[in-house]
Amino acid sequence: MSTATLDKLEAEAQTSHNIKVTFRVRRFNPEISDEATWQDFELEIDPKERVLDGLHKIKWDLDGSLTFRRSCAHGICGSDAMRINGKNRLACKTLIKDINPAKPITIEPIKGLTVLKDLVVDMEPFFQAYRDVMPFLITKGNEPTRERRQSAEDRERFDDTTKCILCAACTSSCPVFWNDGQYFGPAAIVNAHRFIFDSRDEAGEQRLEILNDKDGVWRCRTTFNCTDACPRGIEVTKAIQEVKRALITRRF
Amino acid sequence: MQIHKYDTVIVGAGGAGMRAAIEATKRSRTAVLTKLYPTRSHTGAAQGGMAAALANVEEDNWEWHTFDTIKGGDYLVDQDAAEILAKEAIDAVLDLEKMGLPFNRTPDGTIDQRRFGGHSRNHGEAPVRRACYAADRTGHMILQTLYQNCVKEGVEFFNEFYVLDQLITEVDGVKKSAGVVAYELATGELHIFQAKSVVYASGGTGKFFKVTSNAHTLTGDGQAACYRRGLPLEDMEFFQFHPTGIWRMGILLTEGARGEGGILRNKDGERFMEKYAPVMKDLASRDVVSRSIYTEIREGRGCGPEGDHVYLDLTHLPPEQLDAKLPDITEFARTYLGIEPYTDPIPIQPTAHYAMGGIPTNVQGEVLADNDTVVPGLYAAGEVACVSVHGANRLGTNSLLDINVFGRRAGIAAAEYAHRAEFVELPENPAELVEKQVENLRNSTGTERVAVLRKELQETMDANVMVFRTEQTIKTAVEKIAELRERYKNVSVQDKGKRFNTDLLEAIELGNLLDLAEVMAVSALARKESRGGHYREDYPNRDDVNFMRHTMAYRETDASGKDSIRLDYKPVVQTRYQPMERKY
Ligand SMILES: Cc1cc2nc3c(=O)[nH]c(=O)nc-3n(C[C@H](O)[C@H](O)[C@H](O)COP(=O)(O)OP(=O)(O)OC[C@H]3O[C@@H](n4cnc5c(N)ncnc54)[C@H](O)[C@@H]3O)c2cc1C
Ligand code: SF4
Ligand code: FES
Question: Do B347 and B436 fall into the same domain?
Fold first, then answer.
């Protein structure tokens, strides 16, 4: 029961390897000032810990007013998307050792949504765009008594887009969305894709019409920021392309 | 302060809350108050599956499922409730499929099923495939599907509203629910929600442990709000320790991994579960497996330099199977441990996972004020509640089931009650308690820090009331908790603002954890037997003569304002299954 990686992991865990890092955090609290500022925090932390652990260290030991959202701490609830060293990531899924801790680690709120306090942004416009694509199964006719049948291939067809945790990392990394918040944004399209390509759903046409809008899929300029940002590894750009293609061919 | 009026108010938007909301919204004017955005709820973290005897892949029936649930719960399960759970499971799964849930499929297109701990064919003969699943993301799919259907039904949500108090008014000598008090995170404003019915669906309380699979936000707020208003908490000593948490972090690796063929091994590579559970082996019930792991560790067969963990070995499974069936947990191992589950076994240890106890309810979800009196207008469902379908130990996949079956029942019952009932008058000064709590914390100049107290609490809980307990260790915990509760009075927060003051809310959450930890420890001390998740080394056997009964814990306050816990007991409902020794 031993492998090289495992031995290394177990040996390293025995001793503490704390290093010094600087968290450079974008602070904003309109109760105090209208200006956002940068604040540096010096921490001693094990580089195998998460950025979220670092933020907790600040909040719990140094400055209780530092404000951010979080819940699950393992990349499943979508609460803590933020810009870490200029890239959108989940703080709980980013290990300090992987983001060059020799230099100050910059942490900012995600872009394109109004900042309310520190790393907390207004998520309402994001969820509104999601709700606008009718993100629920629509079927016609009588309900079967048992489950609807679906082949394993048909199920596989939309598997990728079922993984979305609505963290907004994609939408808030999109330059089109930064320029114009009216654009539905990648996350809403991902969630429309999840139903358009579900063989059980019968409202694909309607959803495609919604996305055919001037603020819909055609605004996408295929910059791939969204795909790079997605912590669930969803091929976001590909999903958007598939929706575009379905709009042209009306086949899905 | 704002006052709102709704027929039905639901506290929590996890699986139980949203399942209730879908029913209640169709039938009554409903508001859902939730401290997290609905899709952030911890139901989304559930991985392995949801049990239902669909018999899609092999022979199965709900009666076998009922039996397994009762046996799994070490006979502390109320058997009438377990029967409802197992019977209604089938429709609960089919309903979710019709709502759009993307289950994994069998070759002929029906919902696929897999094995899970404690679920067996014909009363324990062999493991049965009963868990309906969507890869290792079943909870995520349930949460998303329910949220999608809430959007469809136009459910009204108040997001980032923390319910901090339950309002109760006595009418003609009967305690009735009048509504709740909520704190709005964005503004710091207090809101009174007057409602004919209130449904608690606010989830678990695992954050009083250090190594836990639970989210930071699982702090037992609902349990604490009811308990502080004199309502009982049932069976709080029963907490489940899941065998396979990531070593030192506690992040869960689903039992589905063993359902797919994963094996637990000690440092010699031995498949040690064969010794402890010859038939079910790695798929014995969770309390049995967790104790076996710690026995291996204590007897010097643990892994690593400190011998403090064992391995979950998936290396013999084909990579394609891992990718298709267990994609998320294998990614957790890669992300957080830097190891490759195709080739490396994964270091694991038991992790605090699930509260079997909670707010006592009957099978309609009505909350009980004592052993039989219902509190009119008050309901609870999901992990916050204790029906009790899980007894002393919950079977894997029975909680996702519980939240759907009893969430639905509570939502319907609450809305129907709202139709026939009148609004109950609010107590005078309804926000008083919360106002005081908030102001005291905001203005306190005390020297104690929330993070320090919480850490000490978690450490004492891990050390003293985890998998193995004795009179000695539990007493240590009781004393420590009393000390922490004293020190908590002297706690202060640094953020004095109104806007998004999570510093303040963490302090309030800690207060809830402390209250509930005390109830857990005191209930555990009094239960001088071993049953399911509650294992006393000084009383290693189950004692049906003295302890075949539910614990009911009440807070009592004496004239001088000092509070204490009074324990009472409630009989277990037994229908057709006589308690037997539990062997796997
Ligand atoms: C990692 C993990 C894996 C699991 N896997 C499985 C599995 O495979 N199968 C299975 O059957 N079970 C599983 N479980 C157990 C199961 O997932 C949970 O017991 C269940 O999802 C709980 O659902 P709930 O609706 O009761 O609570 P939650 O989903 O936790 O929701 C609680 C809700 O209450 C709200 N809330 C909390 N406090 C307040 C407050 N003060 N005011 C307002 N709102 C509040 C929150 O915002 C949230 O919306 C797992 C659990 C974990 C932790
Ligand atoms: S697609 Fe990915 S990045 Fe976008 S919201 Fe969903 S999970 Fe987040
Ligand atoms: S805290 Fe849940 S995704 Fe990071």
Answer: no
- Cβ contact B313:B263 at 8 Å: yes
| Nearest CA-CA partner of B163 in B356, B368, B4, B364 | B4
The residue of chain B with its CA nearest to that of A146 is B94
The per-residue pLDDT for B435 is: 97
Per-residue pLDDT reduced to its tens digit, B188-218 = 999 999 999 999 999 999 999 999 999 999 9
CA distances from A211 to A193, A202, A214, A246 (A): 10, 16, 8, 11
For the residues A70-99, what does the mean pLDDT come to? 98
Question: Quick one: how far is CA A144 from the chain centroid?
Answer: 36
Sort out which chain B residues have CB atoms less than 8 A from A193's CB and list them: none
Query: Average of pLDDT values for B180-186?
Result: 98
What whole-number distance in Å separates Cα of residue A140 and Cα of residue B275?
A: 54
Inter-chain CB proximity A116 and B186 less than 8 Å: yes
CA distances from A78 to A71, A113, B139, B149, B213 (A): 8, 16, 14, 19, 16
- pTM, rounded to two decimals: 0.97
**Phi and psi, residue B135, nearest 5°:** 45, -135
- CATH number of the domain to which B300 belongs: 3.90.700.10
What are the residues facing B234 on neighbouring strands? B358, B552
Q: Would you say B196 and B184 are in contact if contact means Cβ atoms under 8 Å apart?
A: no
The b/e string for B257-285 (b: 16+ C-beta within 10 A; e otherwise) is bbbbebbbbbbeebebbeebbeebbbbbb
Q: Which of B499, B506, B510 has the highest number of chain A CBs within 10 A, making it the mutation to test binding with A?
A: B499
- Residue B451 forms contact with A (CB below 8 Å): yes
In terms of residue numbers, what domain contains B276?
Answer: 251-351
Q: What is the architecture, at CATH level 2, of domain A10-121?
A: Roll (3.10)
Q: Given A64, A147, A166, which is nearest B494 (Cβ)?
A: A64
* Domain assignment of residue B317, yes or no: yes
> 3-class DSSP state for residue A103?
coil
Query: Does the pLDDT at position A250 exceed 80?
Result: no
User: Quick one: B452 and B555 in the same domain?
Assistant: yes
Interchain pair A13, B100: CB under 8 A: no
% of chain B beyond a pLDDT of 90: 98
Instruction: Give me the DSSP letters along B212-237.
Output: BSS-TT---HHHHHHHHTT--EE-TT
ipTM: 0.97
In angstroms, what is the span from residue B289 Cα to ligand 3's centroid?
Answer: 29
Q: Are A65 and A20 in contact (CB under 8 A)?
A: no
Per-domain residue ranges of chain A: 10-121, 124-251
B561 and B438 together in one domain: yes
The tens digit of pLDDT for each residue in B361-402 reads 999 999 999 999 999 999 999 999 999 999 999 999 999 999
- CATH code at A124-251: 1.10.1060.10
Same domain, B465 and B342: no
- C-alpha–C-alpha distance, residues A57 and A49, integer Å: 11
Instruction: For residue A195, give the chain B residue with the closest CA.
Output: B100
Tokens of A37: 């500022």
Residues sharing a CB contact under 8 Å with residue B213, sequence separation 6 or more, in sequence order: B45, B206, B242, B245, B250, B251, B252, B351, B352, B353
Q: Residue B45 pLDDT more than 90?
A: yes
Structure tokens at B24: 């209640």
Q: Is A55 in the pocket of ligand 3 (CB under 6 A)?
A: no
CA atoms of B435 and B432, how far apart (whole Å): 5
Asked if omega into B388 is within 30° of 0 (cis), the reply is yes
> Phi-psi bin for A141: left (phi > 0), alpha (psi -120 to 50), beta?
left
